[in-house]
């Protein structure tokens, strides 16, 4: 029985697998990963450094998208946007508080200097003027009364002087008569001074009456009517919002100019007297000649801009206050002429336009990445540019040297490096 058990145990031992020999034959997984990292790691790091250093980024040339113009684009040194402003613009009000009786103007009306715009209720002013005139008449009547008394005093003095010669009256009587005459003359002089004061009061009341007639301070155009008959008007805000502070707003159209905020990085390209053109946003096909008046000697800290004033060389009735404009600054000596036939659209270099299957495309550069945009070509300009009908954002740039690049690498969102 013991021998049979021993044989059975030997057979079982023969069926066991020796796992220790298997572990020696196959390496551990972490050891395999370590070997691969040592071999492949340097290659991956070299590739990463190659792209990170920029040697693997596509290098392109950028070209700005310019607004269409009939001027030679090479003479344009700077472009900007601004607004039309009026140097002489005022809201006409009254010098006193009162109720509006009549308003003689409407929006769009041309008014002359000192023209009557409106009248206020002048009942109180008329009454005070009549009172002042009555006071003058009263003083003048008192003077006439004094003239009679003075004449009587002079006669009395003359008689007393004759009597004193004959010793009929004493010298004391003569002195009393003389003093009475002098007193009446002094009263008359005081009343004459009172007449002068009363007449000045009359002048003041006449001015107050005239102030109820509101007149234009200069020649211009009415752009806003602020009050109606029956409303109260005051030179200061009062009445809890129910009192108007003006009759109308007048603009002197001869004082219209353009103001542009230029980035301080490019202000060195602008100088007083520099030629420029102004294109109204409302009339994009029109170009108006202009020149720089002055550069305001201060900068806007928040926006990093400097304000530039620009004058129109020719008056155009289409130019209105607060209109948006586009301004092009040109090199000194450039001749600018008015034009009403500027074509719409934008200009780009021909090498920036790609033709595929009968359709035209450009590659826009946006934050160092490119995006394909379908465009419509109008024509080629006389200065070697391609005119597009499409609209672009201000400051847009496109890839210029398409004919020198591997277009197979191009795709939306591809990062590029601008070399110019």
Q: How helical, in percent, are the residues?
A: 25-40%
End-to-end C-alpha gap = 100 Å
Question: Given the structure, what is the number of helices?
Answer: 5
What would you call the shape? elongated
Q: Helix/strand-derived class? A: alpha+beta
Biggest sheet strand line-up: 4-14-17-16-15-18
Main sheet properties: 6 strands, antiparallel, barrel
* Beta strands, count: 26
Mean pLDDT: 83
Structure in words:
The protein is of the alpha+beta class and 420 residues long. Helices cover 30% and strands 31% of the residues. The protein contains 5 helices and 26 strands. The strands form 6 sheets. Strands 4-14-17-16-15-18 form a 6-stranded antiparallel β-barrel. Strands 2, 20, 21, 22 and 25 form a 5-stranded antiparallel sheet that branches. A hairpin with a 2-residue loop joins strand 21 (359-366) and strand 22. Mean pLDDT is 83; it is low at 21-26 and 49-55.
